[in-house]
Each structure stands twice: as structure tokens, then as C-alpha cells.
Design brief:
The structure is a homotetramer.
Chain A: H1 10-20, H2 26-49, H3 52-57, H4 59-83, H5 87-91, H6 94-101, H7 104-108, H8 129-132, H9 137-151, H10 153-178, H11 187-198, H12 211-227, H13 229-250
Helix pairs in contact in A: 1-4, 2-4, 9-13, 10-11, 10-12
Amino acid sequence: MSEPQFKHFPQLRQKLFVVVFGTETRAGKLFDIILLWAIVLSVLSVMLESVKEFRETYDTIFFVSEWLFTILFTVEYLLRIFITAQPKKYIFSFFGIVDLLATLPTYLTLFMVGGSYLVVIRSLRLLRIFRILKLGRYLREASVLSNALAASRYKIFVFLGAVFTLAMIMGTLMYMIEGGESGFTSIPRSIYWAIVTITTVGYGDIAPQTVLGQAFASMLMLMGYAIIAVPTGIVTSEIAQAEKNQRKTESSGKECVACGKKGHDHDAIFCKNCSAKL
Amino acid sequence: MSEPQFKHFPQLRQKLFVVVFGTETRAGKLFDIILLWAIVLSVLSVMLESVKEFRETYDTIFFVSEWLFTILFTVEYLLRIFITAQPKKYIFSFFGIVDLLATLPTYLTLFMVGGSYLVVIRSLRLLRIFRILKLGRYLREASVLSNALAASRYKIFVFLGAVFTLAMIMGTLMYMIEGGESGFTSIPRSIYWAIVTITTVGYGDIAPQTVLGQAFASMLMLMGYAIIAVPTGIVTSEIAQAEKNQRKTESSGKECVACGKKGHDHDAIFCKNCSAKL
Amino acid sequence: MSEPQFKHFPQLRQKLFVVVFGTETRAGKLFDIILLWAIVLSVLSVMLESVKEFRETYDTIFFVSEWLFTILFTVEYLLRIFITAQPKKYIFSFFGIVDLLATLPTYLTLFMVGGSYLVVIRSLRLLRIFRILKLGRYLREASVLSNALAASRYKIFVFLGAVFTLAMIMGTLMYMIEGGESGFTSIPRSIYWAIVTITTVGYGDIAPQTVLGQAFASMLMLMGYAIIAVPTGIVTSEIAQAEKNQRKTESSGKECVACGKKGHDHDAIFCKNCSAKL
Amino acid sequence: MSEPQFKHFPQLRQKLFVVVFGTETRAGKLFDIILLWAIVLSVLSVMLESVKEFRETYDTIFFVSEWLFTILFTVEYLLRIFITAQPKKYIFSFFGIVDLLATLPTYLTLFMVGGSYLVVIRSLRLLRIFRILKLGRYLREASVLSNALAASRYKIFVFLGAVFTLAMIMGTLMYMIEGGESGFTSIPRSIYWAIVTITTVGYGDIAPQTVLGQAFASMLMLMGYAIIAVPTGIVTSEIAQAEKNQRKTESSGKECVACGKKGHDHDAIFCKNCSAKL
């Protein structure tokens, strides 16, 4: 990250910028590690507070730690706004919004009851963890994965639409066949059952009782069983493609000495860009 | 779609044809969007009507909206027949039958009870949504998927036959081992259980209780676990093949005029085999 | 199938052989179709007999049909032995044993109670169905599938061994953590639970209740979720390989005119077998 | 395995070394097979002892067999230490620790209750089985699998992190929507439910009851259904790559001496690029 130019307090802000946003210096790494632990601990405390036994016994500890973490994150948020050259860009960025949402819920509890659970939005901040893992590998792998998913988003859209249409039709059929006795009390609930079945989750809170219903359910299961192959096939094919492309880009051995173009096939004899012999 | 030649009312019908069947003009797009919303709303109203609380409170609204949508779809259906040059072809096409089935159920409720649920067949009309999405991409992706599925239909037929035979044999064995106490009250019901298990749905409404039964069920689960790999493998392999073919077809224009070699990358300017300009 | 040479009644046996074992003549096809329906009906009657309501109402019909089918299959079995040139080879072949097992159970019911359910072994005879489907395609696809499975049998053996070891260790751990209250009453039962969980079947008849147990179960589920990728990957890779090999064998276009060797790569310029120019 | 040089009792230790650690001689194979059966029987006896009915009836048999196996394994462990040239290396190796843990639990039962179940760690020793199966194939397959898994460990790490974050956020949301009545009594428990749902295990011990909860759960299921494609895609792609590499390595000797082109098929006699004899 290139260090920006500031108008006010240029030296202080530049120093803080390196610590807060950077990850290369020792102080920057330390800041990130402390922040990471604060995030993990604050999320853990929210979780444990929801367990009745803990809430009743350690009431004060949860209250104090909650406010400590909130003040810490507020200070961090204000600091980030202060030291950035373009505060607006940061405030409306993904992490800017996450940082704000991580502090707001506790203040809201002063005015309303029940808002404290929003604190879990802090868990999104755990995504910062990848910033520390500067080993390169992780980012490389994540980019292969997200490229593959992005490339297959149209196919997955078509696929999910087809699955949902199937669930809607089968759910309504089962509502007509089974009726309310077996738990199929309404069409939305039957569609819920159909999705539970197609995705092979199978809670069993709603299950067909009649012979005809079980026959239809069996058909739906076999369809779901065959259907699950489709997204897998899509993503597998895209991942294989994404990896192939990356490998091609990386294979610098076959570089044209004339025009510098990389990524030739292994059996290429002439450069496909300038026709020079490889 | 090329505009057809009509005998009667040629001008009116041609104008309407462009609006009703076409998607390129502004009026055609508007017609499709209104129709789409009418379909979504009518399907939603059928679903919500099946929920007891809604049915009791908003009885009149559901009744009125049902007849409004039915009349709208009837008008649309008759319009389509009127403006098509070959009405028979449309009536017996997939969407022609769907359009008829989308209006009939409500009229049937005048004569018989319970027919109203057939209205959900309207959800099939949601497939029209892909007509609006004229971005090309969606149709292209859907064709890759359906080609892959069509190419693997024989393998999937063989596969489902094998799974069903396995379910039949294991279901009967479990019926003999477990007996009626654990829910295995008949062979069809035991086969239903075997399918629930092989497909890894696992409702738990029927579950083995004896040690021998649980051992057999474990075996069946591990088999199902290994078997699920087969359709995935089939479809993955076909999708990869279908994509490869499409890519090849798309770049088939890039043939070297000098040596005739095909299959060049899209960014190739010179033939990689003989260095001639492409 | 070449028609064999018989010692006794050569003409009669040869004629019958063409009808019973062959599928090319009209009589042979008819025989197979009648046999197929008899198998389907006899299996169906065994299934329906196991349903209490049917058994009580149609007691006599089931009894009569059972003996009719048994006598029919006995006649067919004896006929096959009579008309085969090598009776021993048939008797000890896969279908010979299936044919015998399909008739024995009913006779056993004369001497013992409960043997009637073995009649379901008849369902194995449904495999004969593939003999009629002489379209070639089905057999070709089945051979690709079975080749792929055969090629990956060592990997799947290693894989199932690893899964079972994991289930054994996790099952014992859960037995120690949960104890008998949540249904983990013994180690074999806990291993059964572990297999139900790893394979993502999840009946829910046994489920962890303690926090520690649920944490361990979550770990096991995520492992199972990642593990399911392994057999899929193995089979997919083998199917892709099997199809590639078959395609190579079939692609007769690139045949060397000098030595007749097929299966050259598309970019090959010289025959890899005899160095002649392709 | 090269036979080591010993200081004390060189001849005796060398002879024993060949029997205990080796698998090539007849005595070495016999030792391994006896050891294997002892492990299987001791693990089986621990399992059966946990079943209440067996424990009450065969109390003495379990007690005696337990001590017999423990003494046998203790002798084996000491023997291994005695005959190894580098005892420390063995003691701190994977199998050294497993061998120790396989004997300790029984001795611990003299002092504490419940330790006896740790004896199941003995099952890990079954991994020794691969030492006997010196057919080469199994080890080769296992190495392909472990290479593929090792190559995809970064991607799977990123993937599991994403799944866990999703489970955390959705679990908390469901805790807020459903509340304690449907079993969502705390956030950790709701996260447990989310993992049960994403992985498509679906016990059904906790299931949403409200309409909003079921809608969210349906979304989570469809996400889980699409997500399961990701590890499969990763592993499939890696396995395909690992197999390709192995095949390449195996045929890497086939390099054309004239033009240096590699990657010829195994049945190639002439270079496909320059027609020189390979």
C-alpha cells in the first residue's frame, strides 16, 4: 500500500497510517494481532453471554467486557477515519461499514432492548485475519476459488432457479397428497419440506406418512441425489479451468524473447503474438 | 423471431404479435414484465391462501384476486391463439399447454372442490422469465447444462436402476431383520427407508434399533456415500466436455489459412504451428 | 451368441435355445418380455403381501400367484438346464444361481416359516432387463462406469478404511463424552452414530446433548463434509480417464496409413509407432 | 529397510529386528499377522465390553483378555525399544507413541475409572496393516490421495474458515428469530444447528418452527447445497492433477534425444514432433 499525502498533522497521521493500515512493519503486525484477539474475545463473550448459565453467573463480567470492547472498537474506528486521506472512501467501503456496525449495537442497547445480538456482526471483522496471513499462498488460493465461483455464477443462478421451481411444484403436490396430519399444514411449509429433502438435509420434523406420499418423496430424493451432481460439476469444471489459466500465466519459461508475451502452449514452436521462433 | 404472415386482420395481429411474443421492442418488454409480476403474484396468493391464518382473515381478497388473475390469463391465452399464424402449433407446444393449465383450475372449482391447488401449475410459467433475460449469457449457460445432462442421460438411467435395485434388496433385508417394532412395517416402507438412507436424506422417522440392523444400515450408508460420487463424476465429466466443445466451436473460426491447424487461443495472432498470420 | 451343438434332441433343443437364450428373433424377444413381466409381477406381489392390509384382504390371491410364479420359474430353470450344451457352466454362473434362488424360497415355506421373504432375490433377475435393451448404448455406458469403478477400487478401499477408522475413534470419544443419557449406550452404537454423521445421513435417533459433545460432533460433520469430496474426486477423475481412453480408441480419423495404428494426438505430425507422416 | 548395527547382543537383536520390524521374511510376516489379530481382538473386546448385556454376562472373560492383551503389547513395546539401534527415535515416532498409549490405559484403570476406553487408540495401530500389504498398489494410491489433499490444504483451510463464519452469522440470526422454544436456546447451540444444516446432516433435534425461521433455514440449506460443490471441486481438480503428474513422472524417461520433446505416450516408439526414434 502506497502511503498517502495528508494536509493536517501530516507526520503523525503518516506514522499512524503505517501502524493501523499497514502490515509490513513490526508495529503494524502487533496492532493487527491485538485487534484480532480483541475481535475473537468480543465475539466469544457475546456467544457465551447467550448461554443461560453463564449469563446468570458472570453478569457483571459480560457487561464490563462488552463496554470495554465497544470503546476500543470506537476508538479504532475514529482513528481510521482520522488518518485516512480519503475518509469517505473508507467509511463507505465494505470494512468501513463493518467497523461501524461492530460498535453501534452496544450504544443502541442504551435506548432499546434486544439490540445486543447485532454485536455478532463483529464476526465479519474476522475477515481481517487474511490480512495478517501475508504468506501469499492464502490470497492466491482464495482468488482461484472466488474466480471459479464468479465464473460459474450464471450457471448456479440457473441451477438454483430450477431447484426452487422443482421444490415449489413438489411441495404443492405433497400438500395435496399428505394434508395436515403429517405436518404438511400449508404450501409454504410443504415447500420448506421439499427443500429440506432435495438438499438431503432431512430433519424429519415433517415426513410423509401415506404410501403415495412416500413414493413421491422417494422420487424427489433420487432427483435431489442426481441434482447435487450439477453444482459440483459446474464448480469442479470452473476450478480446473481457473487453475489451468493461473498455471499458464505463471509458466514464465515459455516467454517470447522477441515480444515478451508469456503463456504459450508447451508444444508451441512459434510465438502466437509476433511469429518469432520460441 | 421472424414475424409471420397473417390472413385475417394482418396489421392488428402483426402489431400484437410483436408485443405479446416479441421481447425486443419497448412494448414487448413491458408486456413481459407485467405478465411476469401477474404470475408471481398469483402463485404467491395461492401459497398464502393455503396458510390457515391467512385463509380465515383475508378470505375475500384471495377469492377476488384469484378470479382477476384467471380472467387475465384467459384473455392472454386467447390473445396468443388469435395472433399466432399457426394456432395448433402453439396450443400443443410446452408453453401452450402450461398456459391452458394455468387458467383451467379456477374454472374447475366452480364444479368440484379441491381443484384450486392445481393453480400452482402456474409456477411453471415462471420459466418465461428466461425470455426477458435476453443477455444471452443465461441461455448459453442453460444450453451447456442441458447438453451435459442430455449426454449423460443413459449413464444416469443405468445408475438410478442400480440404486433402485440396491434399495429394493437392502429394504427387504432390513424388513426381515428389524420387523415392525422399529417402523419397518412392510417391504414398500422398508424400501422407502433404504432410499432415504442411500440418498443421505435420513429423516429418522424410521431407524434401525437392533445391533444387526444398525450394522446393515451402516454398510448401506457407506455404500450410499461412495455411490453419490458416481452421478457427480458423470455430470462433471460431461460438463467439462460440453464446455470444451463449446469453446472449440466458438474459436473454430480461427483456422490457419496456411497450414490449416485449428484450435488456436483467442489472443493468437500468428499460427503456432507454421507462423503464418491468422 | 453362437448356437451350440447338442447330442440329444438336437433340433428341439436348438430351437428352444434360440427362443430362451437368444434375443434377436421375434420369439426370443417375446419370451424375454413375458419373463420380465412375470418377474416384475412376482416381486410386486411379494412386496404388497408384506403390507398388513393387503395380506389380510387378498390372502388367497397372494397364495395362488406365489405358487403360479414359482412353478413358472421352476419350469424355466429346468428348461434352461435341459437346452444348454454345458449345464454345469450355466448352473454355477451368476444367473444360474439367481434363477435357482428365485424358486427355492417358496418350496422352503412348505417346511419352515419365514423363508418366503427370500423370494425377493427374484428382484436380482431384473438385471436380465439389460439383455433386451440391445441398443448397444446402455451396455457401452455401463462398461465405462464399471471400468471407472474397477480402476478406482484400490483408492476406494483405502478411503473406506480411513473413514471406518475415523468413525471408530470418534464413536468411542463420543461414548466417553456423552454417556448413555443421549443414546450413546455402547461403543458399537456410538460408532453407528459416527457413521450416520460422517455420511451426512443424520437420522437424529441418537444426537449429542452436551456442549462438548456438540462441539465434537460439529468437527466430525465438517470432516465428513470435506471427506465426501474424496470419493467424488476419485471417481470423477477415473470416469474422465475412462471416457478419454474410449474416445481415443474410437477416434479412427487419425489412423496411420503406413502401420494402421490409431489413437494419435490431434497435434501429432508423425506416427508415433512407425514414424510415417500422418 | 537396512538392518542397523548394534553394540550389545548384536546377533540376537539383529535377528529379532528382522522379525519385529521387517515384513519380507516369513517370520516377519507371521509376527505382523499375529500382532494384527491381537490388535483386532483387543479392540473388539473393548467394544463389546461397553455393551451392557455382554459386560454383565462375560465379566471375567473381558477382565482376563484385557490383561492378556495389555501384557502382550507391553512385551512387544519393550522388545521394540530393546532391538532398535536408536530407541529415542522410535519412542517419539508416531507408532512409538501409539504403541505406548495402547498399553498405558489398562495400567491407569488400577488407579482411576473410565481410562479403559482409551484402549481404543489401539485401533490406530491397525494402520500397520499397510505395511503387510506390500503389493505396492495400495501405497501408491494412498500417496496419490495424500498428495492431492496436501496440495489442497490451503484452499480447504480458506473454505472451512468461510463455512464456519457463515455458520456463526446464520446461527446467531436464527437464535434471534426462533428463540428458545424450538431448541435454539443459546448462540453456540444455534451455531451447532447451523453446522448440522450446512453439512446436510440434519438430525432434526433442533428445527425451526416459525415461518421466518424456516425461510432462513431454506436459504442456508440451498447455500450448503451449493457450497458442498467447492471442496469436491478442489479435491477433484487436485486428484486429477496428482494423477497426471504421476503418470508424467512415470513416463518422464521418454524424452526425444533429437528434439528434446517430452510427454510422449508410453506406447510411442518415434517422436511425434520430429520423427526421431525414441
